[in-house]
Amino acid sequence: MPRLPPNQRLTTDFPVLHFGKVPEFDSNTWDFQAGGLVENPLRLTYDEFLALEKTVDISDFHCVTGWSRFENKWEGVRFSDLAKRVRPKSNARFATIEADGGYTTSMPLSELMEPDVILAYAFEGKPLAPIHGGPLRLVVPKKYAYKSAKWVRRVVFTEEQELGFWEQRGYSDSADPWKEERYSY
Ligand SMILES: Nc1nc2c(c(=O)[nH]1)N[C@H]1C(S)=C(S)[C@@H](COP(=O)(O)O)O[C@H]1N2
Ligand SMILES: [Mo]
To answer: pLDDT tens digits, residue range 25-35?
Structure first.
């Protein structure tokens, strides 16, 4: 199986792509929340987030506009470890990821529980740069990168699917680069 998904081209630099402007980060006021359909909602400061069980994962990154970047080393917290802590209720089937600036994305829990899905605060051994989503971004290697929301502040567990920012604007909700699911039509 080839490593580059169909109609992608490899890049070795790290393009920056987002809608709107990079949010200000103040570690004294920043918080992370997880709620919705969970038994144990939580709110964490930046330092408390850094103190959670840490995972390092190396993965490839595929933007729907056609570039891919191999072998990215992310450090952070596995989504599945976070879920263990908040204990989703039995009717929770999806989660909506909310970012500073209003960006959202959503996925079925079954996909978010994959071991390579990480809420990342470091990249290549350094704190994640603000332009790449610092202090905290989601990384979902098996999906086009619009699922990898930058500047994540909140995860909301839901029963029904909520369409995210790009997904409401014609991009595929399933977003599988290997099936080339770019658009929703
Ligand atoms: N908050 C937020 N996250 C976002 C986006 C955005 O517009 N806002 N764009 C997505 C898209 S389309 C891509 S390709 C990646 C780009 O990540 P990078 O700028 O670190 O390369 O961020 C994703 N996460
Ligand atoms: Mo993208």
So the answer is: 999 999 999 99
Position 71 scores a pLDDT of 98
Mutate to test the pocket of ligand 1, among 17, 123, 138, 154 (most ligand atoms within 8 A of CB): 17
pLDDT band for position 1 (50/70/90)?
confident
Domain contains 21: no
Place of tokens 């990079």: 22
Indicate the number of domains in the chain. 1
Q: Indicate which atom in ligand 1 lies nearest the CA of residue 67.
A: 14
Q: Going by DSSP bridges, is the β-strand pair 137-139/67-78 parallel, antiparallel, or unpaired?
A: unpaired
Please give the Cα distance from 142 to 96 (Å, whole number): 17
Q: Which residues line ligand 1 (CB under 6 A)?
A: 14-19, 63, 99, 101, 103, 132-133, 145-146, 148-151
Q: Could you tell me the pTM of the whole model?
A: 0.98
> In which domain, by residue range, is 101 found?
26-174
Q: What single-letter DSSP state applies at residue 106?
A: E
| CATH code of the domain in which 35 resides | 3.90.420.10
